[in-house]
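re: ur question from the group chat, yeah i did fold both. here u go
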Amino acid sequence: MLGGLYTHPRYRGLGLGTTVTSALTIEALKRSQRAIAYVESRNKPSLRILEKLGYQKTRDIMFADIGTGVRPLMN
């Protein structure tokens, strides 16, 4: 499962996100039959990268943070 990938704003638009996500996807597929990525639905740049690499949306997961800063584990 891929998630939480981040490119510093100074280096965005250089293809680094695509390169890193592609490399991680290749490694994930060496170890499993499929790779899964999670991304916030409003994160259009990340969604474009995943689409370019062949990922397809399968479901939405919703969570709410009431000021704890804690995110649920993704199953």
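okk and heres the other one u asked abt
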Amino acid sequence: MPTLKQSLFALWQYPLPHHALSRLVGKLTHCKVPWVKDLLIRLFVLKFDIDMGEAAVGEPTAYPSFNDFFTRPLKPGIRPIDEEPGSIVSPVDGTISQMGALTSQWLIQAKGRDYSAAALLGDPELASRFEDGEFTTLYLSPRDYHRIHMPVTGSLRRMIHIPGRLFSVNPATTEAVENLFARNERVACLFDTEAGPMAMVLVGALLVASIETVWHGVVTPPTRPTLQSWHYPSGKVELGKGEEMGRFNMGSTVILLFPQGAVEWLPRAPGDKLKLGSPVARILTTQKAQ
């Protein structure tokens, strides 16, 4: 059960105009007025102790806008990608929120709080492919690198934009808001991989101004009133392990889903911090999704 503090933190978010507030923040983060963007960047670096030594451009005020700084690329080679055959790597710098097996189609959000793969993906038939499978939920804090990379080589088959709210996804809200990841706006991407189908779900959050992918560009905004789906022929979008696949313009959460018997997680636990490219699982069966 959430603490009183966690419940109160979640409660004040319900009446907020999530999307309007996030779009307003998005406009501010794209502002290129030098004194405005420099002030925002310097305050952010100070508050979150950002290590600019890892960034491709180390001078904070050299970025044209706060969003350019926030989605900054890293120096080449600073996040080596594990090349062990059959390894699954972390797609982000982040923290494990949850990791383990689905119970039928149910994923763990927090202690005492589960949600369904069908609600998460917006498609019961698609969710059935992951019944009794494996999942991990990775939280990106404000200080983390915010580009998202492929955990394994894959061929894109489908992308789904699922509209929803934009609650914060920090640990306090995760404990308090029921079905959080299936309520927030999100972009689900289905890939064929050597482990079979893999779903990567990019979950929006309060003040996350947009989610984009390398093949589509900005997916949201706009926030569509109904679910929208894009299909891709096999081989049209191929991405290798470690290649960039998308980014959050402000921070959020990535959820990975694999079929039953496809992968085995390495010894990790909720709260463990991960770096992009570090191994998190190994493939047990080699196959292709149909």
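fwiw on the second one: Residues 34-48 form the longest helix (15 residues). The chain has two domains: 9-70, 87-283. idk if thats what u expected
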